[in-house]
Amino acid sequence: MPNRIDVPIATLETNMLHFRLPEGVVRVAVIQAADLHNMDSKMLFQGKSDPYARVKVGSEERQTPVIDSNLNPVWADEDVYQPNEYVFDFPVHDIVNQQIIVELWDKDNDADDFLGECKIQVSDIYNSYYR
Questions:
Q1: Cα–Cα distance between 53 and 104 in angstroms, integer?
Q2: Closest among 62, 74, 54 to 116, alpha carbons compared
């Protein structure tokens, strides 16, 4: 057996900063959007937007499926809660400073068009459930 020398590369504090465990998990369900702007009305075919949502928490990002030609897309029935393509779990490393960002986009063949966004502080959600 070869001889072995253990050399600590990083202190415990440094290790905790780079490889820390999350404080929790936030589950985001994208249900629907309403009265979206028609970004495809300027085109020759006068179609409707093909919306999809991007959800971001920290460095993680997820996306819903595209719903074709719909200005009031519904990704899921509110009464039937089943984890699938519109429900996302994200690790939360900083309850105070992290936020949930939901962006709506119109899918196009060339570059997608931005429809709008919503930002929610994770601390607001945490405080509303754990006072």
A1: 5
A2: 54
| 3-class secondary-structure state, position 124 | helix
The residues, ordered by sequence, that sit 6+ positions from 100 with a Cβ below 8 Å of its Cβ are 26, 28, 55, 56, 57, 90, 119, 120, 121, 122, 125
The answer on pLDDT for 63 being more than 70 is yes
Please give the C-alpha separations between residue 118 and each of 20, 36, 49, 76, 88, in angstroms, as whole numbers.
28, 13, 19, 19, 16
| Residue 15 CA: distances (Å) to CA of 21, 23, 60, 98 | 11, 16, 21, 21
Q: Are 75 and 64 in contact (CB under 8 A)?
A: yes
User: Which two structure tokens, joined as six digits, stand for 106?
Assistant: 């119109």
| Domains of the chain: residue spans and CATH | 23-129 (2.60.40.150)
> pLDDT tens digits, residue range 91-114?
998 999 999 999 999 998 889 999
Please report how many Cα atoms fall inside a 13 Å half-sphere around the Cα of residue 19, on the Cβ side: 6
